[in-house]
User: Which sequence fits this backbone?
């Protein structure tokens, strides 16, 4: 089972929906200690030390309440242990601090589905797709295009998802993850996408410095 997890964790890293972004011009710079706590929390989560991860991320948020990446990671950790309502509260706070937070909207969609709030999920997926499109205009990376395609698929279904995935493959023909996930759509394996997003906690989410 461990080897199975590692194989798909490697695929998740390859897909890179949650890779670290270059900072925007007005990006908030977190406190150094909060950043360290955030990174330690996500390392603990990778090691499946969920309670330690939650303790550390709570410390990071307490140290720097404006640190929206830490708030999103708090949502990821809470979601990992099944506390979806609390996860959504953390994500909402992150979004209130950064309204174009594409990654947070995608998690918001998934966790809303987990508690059967499909109305909220649909709105979150639509917003994620919109924000990922803006991210693409800033930094046209295959990982970002893939994330938008995933948001469109989860929000609109097979037809819209295939259209987006075909566009990603046309733009980035050598990008293997897009082809892999397209096959999952063709097989009707929507649950795989839900699993894949929920497991995107294997590296710290933080902003790179130039």
Assistant:
């Amino acid at each position: 089972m461990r080897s199975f997890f590692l194989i798909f964790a490697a695929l998740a890293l390859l897909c890179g929906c949650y890779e670290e972004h270059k900072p925007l011009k007005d990006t908030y710079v977190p406190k150094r200690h909060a950043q360290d706590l955030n990174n330690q929390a996500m390392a603990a989560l990778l090691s499946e030390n969920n309670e330690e991860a939650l303790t550390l991320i709570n410390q990071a948020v307490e140290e720097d309440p404006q640190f929206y990446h830490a708030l999103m990671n708090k949502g990821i950790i809470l979601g990992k242990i099944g506390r979806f309502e609390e996860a959504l509260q953390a994500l909402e706070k992150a979004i209130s601090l950064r309204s174009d937070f594409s990654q947070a909207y995608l998690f918001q969609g998934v966790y809303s589905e987990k508690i059967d709030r499909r109305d909220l999920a649909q709105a979150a997926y639509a917003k994620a797709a919109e924000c990922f499109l803006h991210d693409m205009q800033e930094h046209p990376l295959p990982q970002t295009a893939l994330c938008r395609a995933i948001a469109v698929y989860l929000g609109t279904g097979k037809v819209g998802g295939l259209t987006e995935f075909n566009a990603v493959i046309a733009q980035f023909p050598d990008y293997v993850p897009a082809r892999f996930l397209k096959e999952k759509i063709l097989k009707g394996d929507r649950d795989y996408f839900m699993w894949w997003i929920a497991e995107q906690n294997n590296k710290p989410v933080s902003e790179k410095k130039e």
In short: Residues 30-99 form a domain with the Serine Threonine Protein Phosphatase 5, Tetratricopeptide repeat fold (CATH 1.25.40.10).
